[in-house]
Structures are given as structure tokens and as C-alpha cells.
Design goal:
8 helices, alpha/beta, globular, 5-stranded parallel beta sheet
């Protein structure tokens, strides 16, 4: 609630989305119930979670009243999270992907470079388009107008079915962030 109050003040009382960022084993249900109260009081428009796995979402489903609007997770072609994607789709929960370009991991990837060349776009645009094609909602980081424009233009072309198959073949389980079970909650 303290975090909410700080955000509420900084944002002049306009909060569209409030998330619990990690499923702390002892606290996420209590935290989520606080978010539900804020949504019921109409001081936040939507509530969601981040880095939640199926077991955490099932626990919420059985113990909370409001379904999360979205789950913000690490996702990219080398860490596609297909099982979680199918679960979220079935439950009507949006998938928002953080680190959608995997912090430069794909800069030298031949498959991504070939697809980028074929469409006369950048590797970043290929990756963002892959997310959008799969129904993910990527949140790419960018600090320069040039890269912001590049990100926006990633929707201006269509990956072929063959492109998607090639990109999907990269899935190797490469997680760059913490696994929710290994996050250092006590730090």
C-alpha cells in the first residue's frame, strides 16, 4: 500500500495498471488482495502480476476474486514460454513481455539477421514483430527517438510462416532474468 500511495501521488491519482512484480512465496496473495481492494475502490483501472508462473496464477484463481488483467514475463524467441502463453490465452490474461529483445543476445544470431535482411528491417524489428505475431505485448526499452521510431515501425511488415517457424526453433529455455523461485526476495 505504501508503494501504491507513492505512485498515486506522483501520478496525480491516475493509475491505469498496478502490478505485483514478483510472486514472493509468503506475500503475493496478501499483496494481490490489496490490489483487488484498490481496483474495487476504483483508484486503479486494472491490476496484474509479473513473473508469475502457472502455479502462482492457479493459486490466485482459487483464492482471489479478480483475475489479473496481464502477466508481465520475460519472453523472447530463445525463451518463448509456450506453456505459460497457452495458459494465459486460455484464461484470458494478456501476456506482456519484458526484455523482448533479450539485451542484445540476438545481435549475432544468423537466423534473425537473415530474416531482417529479407524484410529490410533491423533485428530488433524482427524480434518485436515476432512478439506481436504471437499475441505478446512487448515492452521494449529505448531512450533515443531513433530507437523509439524503430520500435514503432516493427509493425509495418509481416513475418512469413517460415520466418515464424525459424524464430520459434530458437527456443532453448534461455532465461536472462531470475526464475521466480530463485529471486532474492529477502535482499
Amino acid at each position: 500500500m505504501k508503494s501504491f500511495e507513492n505512485s498515486y501521488e506522483k501520478l496525480d491519482g491516475k493509475i491505469d495498471m498496478l502490478l505485483i512484480h514478483w510472486p514472493h512465496p509468503d506475500k503475493y496473495l496478501e499483496g494481490y488482495r490489496a490490489l483487488e481492494k484498490l481496483k474495487e475502490e476504483k483508484v486503479v483501472r486494472e491490476i496484474g502480476v509479473a513473473n508469475f508462473e502457472i502455479k502462482h496464477l492457479e493459486h490466485l484463481k482459487n483464492n482471489a476474486n479478480i483475475k489479473p488483467f496481464l502477466n508481465q514475463i520475460e519472453a523472447h524467441p530463445k525463451f518463448a514460454q509456450n506453456e505459460l502463453r497457452r495458459y494465459l490465452e486460455k484464461e484470458g490474461i494478456l501476456l506482456q513481455s519484458w526484455s523482448p529483445t533479450a539485451r542484445g543476445v540476438y545481435n549475432d544470431d544468423e537466423i534473425v539477421k537473415q530474416i531482417a535482411k529479407k524484410h529490410n528491417v533491423t533485428a530488433t524489428q524482427v524480434l518485436l514483430n515476432w512478439h506481436i505475431t504471437r499475441g505478446y505485448h512487448p515492452i521494449p526499452k529505448s531512450a533515443t527517438p531513433k530507437h523509439i521510431l524503430e520500435n514503432i515501425q516493427s509493425t509495418k511488415f509481416n513475418l512469413s510462416e517460415d520466418d515464424i517457424i525459424k524464430l520459434n526453433s530458437l527456443d532453448s529455455g534461455l532465461r536472462l532474468g531470475y526464475h521466480p523461485e530463485l529471486f532474492p526476495y529477502e535482499k
